[in-house]
Amino acid sequence: MRQIVQHLGSGRTELLDVPAPGPRRGRLLVRATRSLVSLGTERMLVEFGRGGWFSKARQQPEKFRAVLAKIRSEGFFATLNAVRSKLAQPIPLGYCHVGQVLDAGEVHGFAAGDRVVSNSPHAEVVSAAPAFSARIPDGVSDEHAAFTPLAAVALQGLRLVDAKPGEPVVVMGLGLIGQLAVRLLRARGVTVIGVDPDEAKRADAKQAGALVPELGAPLATLLPGGAAGVLITASTSSDEPVNQAARLCRRRGRVVLVGVTGLALNRADFYENEVTFQVSRSYGSTDASDPSSARANFDEVLALMASGALDVAPLLTSRHPFASAPHIYDDLRRPGAYGLLIEYSVPNESLVRTLPGGDGDSRTSGCIGIIGCGNFASRVLVPELRLQGASPTIFASANGLSAKLLAGAAATATTDTTALLDHPGLATVFIATRHDEHGELVRTALRAGKNVWVEKPLALTEADLDATMAVARSSSGLLAVGFNRRFAPLAVRLRAALAAKSGPRRFTVDVSAGRLPAGHWTLDPKQGGGRIVGEACHFVDLLRFLSGSAIATAHCLSRDGDGQDGGCLEMKFANGDIATLNYRTDLPSHLPKERIEVAADGWSAEIDNWKSLSSQSLPGASTLPTWLGGPARGKGHAEAVAAFLSAVRTGGPAPVSLDEIEEVSRWSIRMQGMVRA
After folding, report:
1. CA nearest 511: which of 462, 577, 580?
2. Strand pairing report for 551-559 and 506-512
């Protein structure tokens, strides 16, 4: 199938051939009929891509500050490589998609043949999330339904304004979302005042029923008692729209931001009338029981269209065949443009799920496959495999685009893991999907006799772990888990030095993990399992390696209450060693991310963020700089991959025994439960 992507580094827009998604439980497989270009969001992305480094930093100040913090924490070159990698990765465009359901994925309320609108990208076939999808009523055309996600954005803002019929509301910014907001407010009987410097946009809003003052005319004459609320749909770096909105409000009025503006609020403007300010959350929440959820907003917009209360026909500016859609992005600031509609004629071959590569498919034995082509696979795992002369032959991902981008022209890309496992000559599989898929994928690959490397964690529950270990012990394939830090040169050197210190030792590991966005999949118990089992397991394994002794007990000393799994855990080992793992999510971003200390009577050693190893009275631990012959730095990714590939090539044992993999995985699962108890 074909999909529109945009290159963040250059701004170039491309129609790319990618494998089609397949049926998945809990997802809707949809064949496209129409999609709508968002002149706000998509224009912003395109202009961001076309700008230089300075322009990119100016447009994304928060991300620029995050880059500076990363430089302080991880160094300039590591940060530069990460930024370049991010900008080199094309992204899908679009989020207003209409089509027909091919497979409903056992989702309640949907069936094959339904017409649906979703927040999916511009592509001939999509796998749509039910939480952001809605069935289209018979009385609504596909081309009108394509406006639904953008209208839902406006509707969510209006819900927060909460104006009653007859009350005055100001809409600042009369682009497409502003025009939709005017129509939605009028459908509710609200008095609307439209504000925009563009004369044509003001005229369109007036035609839809808004009161529109002349440019520069005072708004006070239209708002003798003040506005019940102001909805800001404009896009500007200026702080003035927000502060002007506060001045327009009556006592305890509401200012709601849907667009993007400066946010240096003038306290006096808000203080006088106790005006509230809120930022609207896109189309709404994902909670199906929430009356302002995305699904509820989609349904209300479609119902208004079906009843005739919301007429979007005047906002449909032009229609474009999908084959020429990239040309739409040549000029997204064309005067008078609102709704740019893409029309699809989807051939049956668009459902093909596997796209063979070129010379990469010529291998007949010892091939490598990748399942899961997200950030870690694309930025760390696959580049390292290629550096070590082990380029993968076939790539699989659920949505197809990430698989195609990693595969390039030489390798096969697919959305079908069965096709990957059946690929001729496939011997080894690297699994880097989301955590909840690891156990079943590992078992399937091991049963097929493949060698398996799976990114941590191996399992999210002890029952899942038991099932996987039973298969691993009966399989002819090797099993490795991506616990890379035990392979880091500084960790290996420290363990060798510790061999001479057999008495009980005290380890302290400090991890500044940072805060994840609320609702991040890693925090979901079912999908990600939590940050201890999903991330802190690295340090459980590292401590097991450095101690060289089995974990005897573990308990939680303290836990943070921020829902991010931060806390302090203590581990005791069979040889008497004790370790404290401080996994923190609330520390400043400029602090070193990882520090490992070990001490006993009269001696100590410390690894500082994998940049240096220093010691006091511990022979063999202190290191010279790399350029003077000291060991390499880094977290052990290269060394871990090399050890696994060596075992595969020589038929030797796995780098870490199954017993130790099981032990670390089991204790990580238990410690996750302790933090959330």
Report:
1. 580
2. unpaired
